[in-house]
Write the structure tokens for this entry.
Amino acid sequence: MNTSYLDVLNVFHSLLKSKFEIDEDLEYQWFLNALADYELEIGFLEFSEGSRSFSYVLPRYIIKTLGLIMYVNYLTQELRRVMKLNGIIGKDISLTGMDATKRVTLEELQSEKIYAEKLLHKQKQHAFN
């Protein structure tokens, strides 16, 4: 059976630590973005948007890479969200002191981005091969 979008989504969900439900359309867009990034860096993957599946079985390392790139997209959006919460003070709520959350989110984003770049680099065809 060919690899499907759901196979990549399962990898993404295994990395996710969110308590909130994420919109399915947003997840699919992150997948398409990850697919575009992968194809730009490595090579074309035959994906059908109609059936939401690839035309063949992808190796596990490609599925993992796509899921990780989706997670980097999620962390990027999460960092933007946290940055917008800076200094919200109301009658019943005070959301200052979000610096720790920002720092942790940024560190995780940077770490996952580096890991994704390493995975992509390992999959590139080098000139000396």
Remarks:
- Residues 5-123 form one domain.
